Amino acid sequence: MQRDIEQRPGTTAASTGTQPVARTSLPGNLLAPSAARRFVAAALAEWSGLGLPAAVGFSERLSDDAAVVVSELVTNAVVHAGTNVELLFRLEEATEDEVSALVLEVSDHHPARAVRSDRSEDGPAGAAAPEEPAEYGRGLELVATLAERWGITYRTGLKTVWARLPVDDWNPFPDAPTEPGFQRGLRAAELLAPTARRALRDSADWAGRGALSFLAEASDLLAGQLDEDIVAALAGQLLVPRLADWCAIWLEPETPGRAAVPRLAKVWHVDEAHIQPLRTLLEGDPLRLPERVGTGPVSMPWPGSAEDGGQPEGAEGLALAYRITSGGRTLGAVLLGREGIARVPDEVTALIEDFVRRVGLAVGAARAYTRQATISRILQRGLLPSKVADIPGVASSLVYEPSDDGVVGGDFYDIFPCPGDRWCFVLGDVQGSGPEAAVVTGLARPWLRLLAREGFQAGEVLVRLNRLLLDDAMEAAEAAALMVAAAGGQHSADSGQSRFLSLLYGELVPLPGGGARCTLVSAGHPLPLLLRPDGTVRPAAEPQLLLGVMDDAVYETQSFDLAPGDSLLCVTDGVTERRSGPLMFDDGDGLAQALSGCAGLTAEGIADRIKHAVHAFAERPPDDDLALLVLQAE
């Protein structure tokens, strides 16, 4: 997301100055509301740091209200218009008739889809049909409650919903020094990382306004985590100091039993010096709430005392426990404490319960991902050979790096001996991923071994494999897809493509004087490259049809001598199609150029250099399986 803060001329009755304006464009998807909230928070912090006169009235309440309003307006635009969203955020200085105000304008490019609201630019103009609010939610009712004014403006190809939030004069730091620089720094820090200051002073008001922003941001942070310990750590830091002075989070084992004991995953305290003593105190008494208490708050004894180091001297207050659940299962418990109080308002306990519910959803999602990733790793190991054969007179080096997305990939490899002093090698890539691709991979590799050892020539091996893919493999892949759907999973969008297989299949026959006779056939696969000792590189095969497309496909072979010192590089498209922005690694024969610089290296040296070149091509890690095989005649 790009942000453009501009200063545009503006005039007031009292003076002439500048009117800060922040603009950005957001994608029309579910990530837009959280991006909009971050954008608004950053703009407020920046304007506070500039020392603008109107920024003196910035408060936590105003920051919360702005976050809620922009979230609702952007969500409305994304859900009901479905286009990209333009966001304009400006600060209007006070005039003789108006107080300072923040103005939010959210525009979409589908004006035909009117916002279902009956307010004019400056106020209500009627009542909506009784049956309509359920369809559109209560987002605009919330905007109308928080905004001084709001309205809708239609232009050609554009619809803009705007809201005006007055800047109040409440000073959130009444006891702080009065130096302008100090005040501006405090305001900027507070807007970017609000604490529990107002929550502790005015819990009901904070729960009614800031709670909406807090829960929205918490959901964004927790939902993207794939590790339950990270979820617990984030939850602790979100609770402390906003809603508690300390907290502890226990997680139940993945497979609970009578002997299973909850694990203390995270302890957090507003004073870091007390984190370890509190952890030591709580570890000896695991928290497990009975099912009958539900998900609401349960009063608990205040842990420890000053003598055992559990809490600071004189510290005492209220401790509450909440059960963490997801899908009807207990996943753990949260214990939190507030010092110096005897009761927490109902609004705050309800807010914490809502937050813990989100923690449960995040822990459940993280565990589901971990289970899937574990199954995928086990399945991936079972689909690949435990060891590849050594070829007499030919050195080999293999690199295989599955993408780290927790899903079984479609890349596979093999090197195995066959009758007649032949050595076969395979590098394949099933289109798609997941269970359907795994089924095809699990069938293709043993079929190849069987056909090759039955004495079929290279071209005939692929002809017969192609027929099998169009028959048995497709049925098996569809059965796997149906099983996934029946178990509550998602049917892969590319499951119909999982029978398609790109394959490089080759045979090597060692020659008496050194080197080997190589026969290749490439079916829809990146072409293998032959590197000569003088650094020249050329393709070693001709492109042919992908397997699994046509049942009468015929495959032809290419043969050549792999002389001593020659090297053959075979890769999957995870190498050739490695992306850096709009560019791919093999654009402009990039792979051949990288290989030409490997003359004189061993097979292992070539494989290592190509692998590093692929990784260095882009800053982000590869998002596809990476497999490459180097064969070098000795």
Ordered list of secondary-structure elements with their pairings:
Blueprint: E1 4-11, E2 16-26, H1 32-49, H2 60-80, E3 85-92, E4 101-108, H3 133-136, H4 139-146, E5 149-155, E6 158-166, H5 180-192, H6 197-201, H7 203-208, H8 210-223, H9 228-239, E7 246-251, E8 263-269, H10 275-283, E9 298-300, E10 317-326, E11 329-339, H11 346-383, E12 394-401, E13 411-418, E14 422-430, H12 435-453, H13 458-486, E15 501-510, E16 516-523, E17 529-531, E18 537-539, E19 543-544, E20 558-562, E21 567-571, H14 573-576, E22 579-580, E23 583-584, H15 590-596, H16 603-616, E24 626-633
Parallel strand pairs: 16-19
Antiparallel strand pairs: 1-2, 2-3, 3-4, 4-6, 5-6, 7-8, 7-11, 9-10, 10-11, 12-24, 13-14, 14-15, 15-16, 16-20, 17-18, 17-21, 21-24, 22-23
Helix pairs in contact: 1-2, 1-5, 2-4, 2-8, 8-11, 9-11, 11-12, 12-13
Structure description:
This protein is α+β, with helices and mostly antiparallel strands and 634 residues long. Helices cover 35% and strands 25% of the residues. The chain contains 16 helices and 24 strands. The strands form 5 sheets. The protein has a 6-stranded antiparallel sheet with strand order 1-2-3-4-6-5, covered by helices on one side. Strands 13, 14, 15, 16, 19 and 20 form a 6-stranded mixed sheet that branches. Strands 8-7-11-10-9 form a 5-stranded antiparallel sheet, sandwiched between helices. Strand 1 and strand 2 (16-26) form a beta hairpin. Helix 1 (32-49) packs antiparallel against helix 2 (60-80), helix 8 (210-223) runs parallel beside helix 11 and helix 12 packs antiparallel against helix 13. The longest helix has 38 residues, at 346-383. The two termini are 54 Å apart. Residues 1-17, 117-138, 169-207, 306-310 and 484-497 have low confidence and may be disordered.
